[in-house]
Specification:
Length: 315
């Protein structure tokens, strides 16, 4: 019989990319994780790790085995969901995680509403970045994550996760009071080619959004300010350094003289946010109940685009 704990170690190595990363996530030493893989390889009679310089990679046999392990894990979660569905009202512990804006706008109100509607459920909420959210889901330490869709996330074909686009958050042009566009009902990005810009620092998602939107509109922005935090970007704009694109869900400091102007035309940028579970996890009654509440809150929120896409089970 195969020791299932060794399969978990192999999955963790595939997810984290290193034996040490897998060991840390499983709260064990690197040597112990390596020993588990050696024993699993001996039991199966095939090599599972191959040396690449000072690192290792999964062998072709390990890749085949992982596909089966992921399928078994998903089937087990579906079985759990069916068993929980026989208990009636959604109950038990449900752990949510997400980025700061999503927590402030949607997840914290969701937890408050869920406690009133489903008293048998216990909800916990944790602030995370996207990469950490996927790690928590994979480790079984979170049940539902709200993340921004980015190329750094696991790809759509990753069979470990199910996901659904729940809303699209448009970017507004933010200008200081008195700016020529401050009184406009909307603005086309193509008219902003000669404006100085404040954008995110190199490597940031915000910078990528702005540069892509401006490129699609036919120009490269003149960057006069760079910052990591929305508040710092807003301060720079308020002091007339330049204009900025800031998501509608982001609250601007109320003491600053700033004006939001909706972006119109074919080049309006959006942040796309997805609810993610481990594959099969969305069928749990508690997760389904929370997704319905999330849909309610998105419908009630002003200025964001509700996504009509059903929950997508990745192939």
């Amino acid at each position: 019989m195969i020791d299932l704990r060794r399969l978990h170690v192999l999955r963790a190595i595939a997810h984290h990319g290193t034996v040490s990363g897998a060991a840390k996530s499983l709260h064990m030493s690197t040597s112990a994780a390596s020993q588990q893989i050696r024993l699993l390889s001996k039991e199966l009679g095939v090599p599972l790790l191959e040396p690449v310089g000072r690192r290792v990679r999964l062998s072709s046999a390990a890749q085949i085995l992982l596909a089966h392990i992921d399928a078994i894990e998903a089937m087990w979660r579906l079985a759990e969901a069916e068993l929980q569905a026989t208990e009636g009202e959604p109950s038990g512990l449900l752990r949510l995680c997400g980025f700061p804006t999503a927590i402030a706008t949607l997840l914290a109100p969701l937890v408050d509403r869920a406690r009133d509607r489903y008293p048998a459920m216990e909800l916990r909420l944790r602030e995370t970045e996207a990469s950490e959210s996927f790690d928590l889901l994979f480790a079984g330490e979170a049940d539902l994550a709200l993340v921004e869709a980015t190329p750094e996330n696991p790809p759509p074909e990753d069979i470990r996760f199910d996901s659904q686009t729940v809303f699209n958050d448009p970017f507004d042009l933010v200008v200081p009071g008195g700016h020529p566009y401050a009184g406009a009902e909307s603005v086309d990005l193509r008219s902003l080619e000669r404006e100085p810009w404040v954008i995110g620092v190199p490597g940031s998602i915000h910078r990528r959004h702005v540069l892509t939107a401006c490129s699609n509109a036919g120009f490269r922005p003149t960057v006069v300010g760079e910052a990591r935090e929305w508040t710092v970007i807003a301060v720079m704009v308020a002091h007339h350094l330049g204009v900025a694109l800031i998501p509608r869900l982001v609250d601007l400091p109320p003491h600053l003289d700033l004006v939001r102007v909706p972006v119109s035309g074919p080049f309006t940028p959006f942040r796309h946010f997805r609810a993610v579970t481990l594959r099969g996890g969305q069928r749990r009654p508690a997760v389904s109940a929370v997704m319905e509440l999330l849909d309610e809150l998105v419908r009630e929120a002003e200025g964001i685009g509700r996504a009509e896409e059903p929950f997508h089970e990745l192939p």
